[in-house]
Write a sequence for this structure.
């Protein structure tokens, strides 16, 4: 009976320690979410940007600002930077990628 308890404790410890090691192991994959992932994305303008408006990117509508030009509803805008939760965009002819 004591041998069975020791075996169960050892198995549980191996599982827990293995889980901790996997959780703390450094990741080598590129960033998949957050601000860094948004830079360079192209989306559709949903509300004319002059200089403020809205753009649809990654299934979400974002508040957008364009320093250079007016971007009409339905045109494409490319994310250049962030300021808070606002995307800084430029007009583009590129498709989404």
């Amino acid at each position: 009976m004591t041998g069975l308890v020791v075996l169960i404790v050892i198995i549980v410890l191996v599982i827990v320690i293995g889980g901790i090691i996997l959780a703390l192991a450094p990741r080598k994959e590129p960033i998949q979410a957050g601000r860094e992932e948004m830079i360079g994305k192209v989306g559709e303008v949903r509300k004319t940007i002059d200089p403020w408006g809205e753009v649809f990117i990654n299934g979400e509508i974002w508040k957008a600002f364009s320093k250079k030009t007016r971007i009409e509803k339905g045109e494409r805008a490319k994310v250049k930077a962030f300021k808070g939760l606002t995307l800084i965009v430029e007009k583009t002819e590129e498709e989404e990628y």
Q: What stands out?
A: Helices lie at 2-24, 35-38. The longest strand covers residues 76-83. Residues 4 and 75 are 68 Å apart (CA to CA). The mean pLDDT is 87.
